[in-house]
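FAQ
Q: What does a multi-component entry look like?
A: The components come first, one per line:
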Amino acid sequence: MDGRSARFCRLVFAGHLWPILCLARIAVTLAGAMLYFIEQCLNGIQLGMLLFLLAAGLTLIFGIMDLVNLAHGSLYMIGAYFAATFAALTGSFIAGAVLALVATLLVGMAVEVIAIRRLYGRDHLDHVLGTFGLILFFNELVRLIWGPAGMTLPLPNQMLTAVQVLPGVYYPAYRIVIIATTLVVALLLYLLVMRTRIGMLIRAGASNREMVSALGINIKLLYTLVFGLGAALAGFAGLMQAPILTVQIGMGENILILAFVVIIIGGIGSIRGAFVASIIVGLIDTVGRAFIPDILRLFLSNNAASTLGPSLSSMMIYMLMAAILVFRPEGLFPAASK
Amino acid sequence: MTAWLTPRNAVAVVLVALLALLPFYASVTGNYFLMSMFTRILILAMAAVSLNLIMGFGGMVSFGHAAYIGIGGYVVGILAKEGIGSGFVQWPLALAVSGLFALGVGALSLRTRGVYFIMITLAFAQMVYYVAIGLDRYGGDDGLTIHKRSTFDGVIDLSNRTLFYYLCFALLLAMVYLVWRIVNSRFGMVIQGARSNDRRMRAIGFATFRYKLTCFVIAGVMCGLAGALLANHTNFVSPAMMHWTRSGDLIVMAVLGGMGSAFGPVIGAIAFLLLEEGLSRVTEYTNIILGPLLLLVALYARGGIDGLLARVHRG
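Then the predicted structure of the entire assembly, as tokens:
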């Protein structure tokens, strides 16, 4: 585009309209930058939505069972692998996704019953060590079953198109589907926790587990269900992300650490905090990566900017986290303290 | 039985003796791979010992300890690449940068407790990891080859494998001694007191934050030294050396060996790395055994090997 418009400018320069047309060109460039900015914002929101799915499960599990679950990213990975496998088997993306969701839920509940259950009430270091062991196990298990090469999850044709979201702004349909479905899931989660009987039990279990179990509620089953719910959310994030990235071993780990950052910023145990912080982190990370190298170029030499740019833009969210920690060590929306 | 001759001490003495004799075995049999492997074990043991100072005695579970290995290593690597080969410059700078980073991370993360602390240290380590990936001039994702080990003219020649091994060995012993001295000092008592009841320590007049931060920085500096050594050992630095799983490995070493003593993590590092090496010869899928094993250690053997030995003694 740049070369073409340069040639265009040169042509116009020969005539006498060049000041007007050059202004027009600047306007077009600015509009282009604006479109790019909007697109990057949408990408950021989409990343934020995925982070929310992970962070909500993590914060739910932490808030209720007081458990640090490092293996949450493994469930994300397993969801993606299941989706790729089931979609290939059934030939349908939707069927694959639904089956994968159910399968991840079951795997999550099985993991809770076999291993996680024994970690409740223990030191956080035990959680770290035990769930770190689970990550190693799951990564290797996936390698054993599906092999070291990654998989791909092809999208159905009708999702490969781009949709006009604003006049002149086209955006891939599938990414919009991600944003929309995650919003629906977030709403359902809110309704589940705040408006249903099981949600009431979950909230009660978070504030006083002895009392809930003394009232005759099967707290063990409740915990298994909550863990399964968290696993299903993580699996859902994994299977939604699978068509965009390759499905590969360890895919859940980097995004899990981002989800930790989200939880730290949002406040541990707060789903609302997780939602707000997810969008903030998603936006800052994506927009920062897209624009920081260019912004640096305004102040520094080209060479220095391209050296510093990638490092600095990946530091952005951690600096945000540090800033939040200085001013609000408990996060933006601290959950009611126990 | 004399009081000091416990199974714990006996194992420690035997291990130290074996480690001291290892280069002789290597030169007799020509098995230099073994010596190289143990050099790496000694270096990682240093990192585990330093982690244990804050985690075992201070109760500060840092999940980002590998970052200091990376920082120490990268300082050496970057200086070497820029033509500054003298260890008298490289090493102090590596320690200083590690210490400064620890100061920053500690000042922020020690404002919080428990699970926040774990996640924040992990997040900051991940930040360093990404910064290293972004350093295109220094190899980015692929890492940076160090063409010449640090030079200490007239003092020690690091390119001599045996000498390098003994340097690591001596430094490890020095670190264990240092940690032992720290833990048994007044300073160490305050740290341990803050672990069991921070509020009470503050109530009797100790500004525990400062003590903990100092301890955190000491551990960071020690681990930075391990990083500088590791860079010299492998002649290579890459972001992979501070991948978050490396931090997890260090925690595993400290817990496996036993967090109750200064020497425990050394046992843990040897046991863990030998186990890893051994399993990789039996099966391609080592972690399918190692992973559940960690879970079992977390569930049933928190005292680690050192704790088992102490129990043997008590009968």
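Q: Is there any commentary attached?
A: Sometimes. For this entry: The beta strands of chain B are 144-145, 236-237.
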